[in-house]
Design brief:
The chain is an alpha/beta fold. It is 55% helix and 11% strand. The chain has 17 helices and eight strands. It has helices spanning 15-28, 45-48, 58-62, 97-108, 125-131, 145-166, 172-181, 184-189, 192-202, 204-215, 234-246, 261-267, 272-275, 280-294, 302-324, 328-331, 338-375; strands at residues 2-7, 33-38, 72-74, 80-83, 114-119, 138-141, 220-226, 251-257. The chain has an eight-stranded mixed β-sheet, with helices on both faces. Helix 11 (234-246) links the parallel strand 7 (220-226) and strand 8. It is globular, with a radius of gyration of 22 Å. The protein starts with a strand and ends with a helix.
Length: 376
């Protein structure tokens, strides 16, 4: 099972939108998916997928009112089950150590191909620990200055949390970090690669352990709510900062345009990919799902990371063209109105993308079959 935590440095950037629609896309591909609402201070993911207000959820499990199996509900969507949160139980957004561990153990033993965790905004320790359940969690951000900064700061806090988990109490590395924490301003200014070089001289065994762990830690970035192709470049700024200051490689999963269709879908209590499957936003989410499906067989490396950002830029340009160009010379004949022609082009694009997805799935099956044949 793959755990896919979805986080953001700040609220309002489309984290729940992505989580819900990604679960539906993976379910349509034949994968068993469990979608969990872990925005425990403000649980409302059930509204995005059109579920009724839940009577049982993570809150009632933690208080002992329900067994874990009892809080996993079926949905109207193929292969997708849902775990609600609970925003009405006091203190739920700040879990105790035992509660968090109990929840993590249950998550790790769920019968599914994918477990998607819709995390709360911010950098609370519970959120960071849930994000670190996977080496390839997803960060959703937007092109505004505050959103990109908060996206970077979330990843920075995740790296520090990984470091704290690696340097156990009583080790020389932990003692050194404790001293640095007394001067938090100096700690925040430190480059992680430089810090690890210093720890190498103090505690080489744990320094190497951290290096091995961060090599396997490759968060995936999605730039949402863009209005034009150049907005996609903001993702590169986050990537460069992560490389320089954190020694961390980030992969791009793509971009999603701001789309008023999402508001209409939400008011209809339907995910946008169900409400309007050929909308630009729906197609972007489908592309992201396809990349995740492919990542089962494609290993991550530095070259893949470079390519992922170039592909995201191309996708931003393609989506912008789909969104803005309607072949005006054909309208001059009077045979079609602007609206009719736009709908026709969108439908054709939808059909083309569907064929592409079929090709990707066939290719994946061929690769798996070839790999099995090689093993035999």
């Amino acid at each position: 099972m793959q755990i896919i935590p979805v986080a953001s440095g700040k609220g309002g950037v489309g984290k729940s939108l992505l989580s819900a629609n990604l679960a539906i896309a993976l379910g349509k591909a034949g994968k068993k998916v469990v979608l969990a609402d872990l925005d425990l201070g403000a649980s409302n993911l059930h509204l995005v997928i059109g579920q009724n207000s839940p009577k049982a959820g993570i809150g009632t499990f933690l208080t002992g009112e329900n067994k874990f199996d009892e809080i996993i509900d079926d949905t109207d969507y193929e292969n997708v089950r849902f775990i609600a949160g609970d925003s009405e139980i006091p203190g739920l957004s700040s879990l105790k150590f035992a509660q968090k561990n109990a929840l993590i153990k249950k998550f790790q033993n769920i019968d599914a191909d994918y477990l998607i965790l819709d995390l709360g905004a911010g950098t609370h320790l519970t959120i960071l620990d849930m994000f670190l359940l996977s080496p390839q969690g997803i960060i959703v951000t937007a092109p505004t200055v505050t959103a990109t900064l908060n996206g970077y700061l979330f990843l920075k806090n995740a790296v520090f949390r990984l470091m704290a988990a690696t340097f156990k109490k009583g080790t020389k590395a932990n003692d050194y970090l404790t001293k640095l924490r007394n001067d938090s301003a100096s700690l925040q200014r430190l480059y992680i690669p430089k810090l690890i070089e210093t720890i190498q001289g103090i505690d080489p065994e744990n320094a190497e352990k951290f290096r091995n762990r961060i090599k396997k830690f490759h968060p995936r970035l999605i730039m949402n709510m863009i209005d034009e192709p150049k907005d996609a470049d903001k993702a590169q700024k986050i990537r460069r900062s992560c490389q320089q200051y954190l020694g961390l490689e980030v992969e791009s999963l793509g971009v999603m345009y701001r789309d008023s269709m999402q508001d209409r879908a939400l008011s209809s209590r339907l995910p946008v990919s169900v409400y309007k499957p050929n909308a630009v936003l729906s197609q972007a989410i489908q592309r992201i799902a396809d990349k995740i499906l492919q990542s089962e067989t494609v290993a991550f490396d530095l070259e893949t990371a470079n390519d992922s950002f170039e592909i995201a830029t191309e996708e931003a340009n393609d989506d912008f063209s789909s969104k803005m160009s309607y072949v005006e010379d054909l309208i001059g004949t009077g045979a079609l109105s602007v609206t009719e022609l736009a709908e026709m082009i969108k439908q054709q694009q939808y059909e083309i993308n569907s064929l592409k997805r079929e090709n990707v799935l066939l290719k994946s099956k061929i690769v798996k079959a070839a790999a099995l044949g090689f093993k035999v």
